[in-house]
Amino acid sequence: MIPDINFVESTFETYNHQIFNSELPQPRFVLSRARTFRGKLAYKRTRTFRGYHNHDFEMRISTSFDSPIKEWEDVVIHEMIHLRIATAGIEDHSAHGPEFRKLMNHINRVHKRNITVSTRTTPEEQEADTRIRAHYLCLAKFSDGRLGVAPVAKSRIFDLWESLEKFPNTVVTKWVGSTDPWFNRFPRILTPKFYIVEKKEVALHVFTAMQLERNGGRLKAVNRHYTLDELLP
Q1: Mean pLDDT throughout 149-171?
Q2: Which H or E run includes 75?
Q3: I need a surface site. Which of 3, 7, 176, 199 has the fewest CB within 10 A?
Q4: Residue 59 has pLDDT above 60, yes or no
Q5: Is the dihedral of CA 128, 132, 137, 142 positive or negative?
Q6: Across 143-217, where does the E strand assignment appear?
Q7: Residue 223: how many CA atoms within 13 Å on its side-chain side?
Q8: Residue 130: what pLDDT?
């Protein structure tokens, strides 16, 4: 089965009533041709005098995969868990941290579902995604020698800039912009987090990136290319 808008809307309505007591606000439903995920919840985050306010929720469902209906239901419920956490102002350590897993495990046990912590696609499916997209990335070198990459939505760069640069055990961090499709495989982060990558692999794709510098509330691209060792000595 390939999902359509009617399926997504009806599935949301059904499980909002059965699982969430009809308490979740209905997001915008959007069909996507993405091949790096089956489902994704996107929203805006605005700083107010009371803290951060999450709003303008959008649930994106990919139509690039043919899967059983029960799996698609679990994808929608997975994104509904994210919606619950975002609208309730629940603090979690990461996108699929302890609070997410606690609610997911409860739903799986009580409602006989098979929701998993990720709706990302397989490495083979990710390799097939060759779209040209703009990526804003924080690269990090850790004290144990490992390397990490954190893809950030342009609208969230300044919200996450300092927290990523001060991420535990980082030795050095650098920000770059890239359109290399290799980075399509990494979901954009909502909270401070790095994906660990192999040096020899990421080095091939960083060379064409442009280093980004912060100038107040603006980004400035450094007009030259750097090797990975130059960026993260």
Answers
A1: 91
A2: helix 69-88
A3: 199
A4: yes
A5: positive
A6: 147-152, 170-178, 195-197, 210-215
A7: 0
A8: 63
Mean pLDDT of 6-35: 94
* Rounded-to-integer distance, Cα 155 and Cα 213, Å: 16
pLDDT recorded at residue 66: 77
Lowest pLDDT segment from 22-36, 116-130, 163-177 = 116-130
Q: How confident is the model at residue 37 (pLDDT cuts 50, 70, 90)?
A: confident
What are 160-163's contacts with CB under 8 Å, separation 24+?
160/189, 160/191, 160/192, 161/214, 163/192
CA distances for 18 relative to 12, 21, 55, 126, 216, angstroms: 10, 6, 24, 33, 47
The pLDDT, as a whole number, for residue 129 is 56
Q: How far apart are CA 183 and CA 65, in angstroms?
A: 20
Q: Which amino acid type is present at position 49? A: F
Return the structure tokens found at 155: 């609208």
Closest to 76 (Cα-Cα) out of 137, 136, 128, 13: 13
3-state secondary structure of 34: coil
Q: Is the dihedral of CA 224, 227, 231, 233 positive or negative?
A: negative
d(CA 56, CA 169): 34
Q: Which two tokens stand for residue 134?
A: 């703009």
